[in-house]
Amino acid sequence: MTTPWQSMLTPWSHAEVMPRVDETEDEKAFHIQVELPGMDKEDVDITLSNGMLTIRGEKKREDEEKGKDFYRKERSFGSFRRTLPIPAEVNEQAIEASFKKGVLYIELPKSEEARKKVTHIDVKAA
8 CB contacts (<8 Å, ≥6 apart)? Predict the structure, then answer.
């Protein structure tokens, strides 16, 4: 049974937050999008070590409301850590990240060698 307080909680009010991550690939790069609603770029830290990309973040929210006969102050905190393996063919020096409207975009350009290695194979009817 849920209490009235539990129904008011948001996913960010728990310590274990796991944002949604979308990964795509094209001829030139691997692309990662991480949904971080309500967060700013200052709340996010990205590191690369031993072929692993780690994205960490913490959301801190504080609401305060004052009225004639009341005072309400609520705080919620949530943090996350996602570690993703990075393909060996990525040019690590050219990785770029940007943040826009609650979404973190990370572009991992493929190395020149990796782009040349792509071989297309025709599929024939049997």
Answer: none
Angle at 71 between CA 66 and CA 74, to 5 degrees: 100
| H/E segment holding residue 66 | strand 52-66
- Tell me the C-alpha to C-alpha distance, in Å, between residue 120 and each of 27, 89, 104, 116: 12, 18, 32, 11
Query: pLDDT tens digit string along 32-41?
Result: 999 998 888 9
- Does residue 26 contact residue 102 with C-beta atoms inside 8 Å? no
Closest CA to 55 of 89, 94, 23, 101: 23
Tens digit of each residue's pLDDT (9 = 90 or more) over 54-93: 999 988 777 888 888 888 888 777 788 999 998 878 998 9
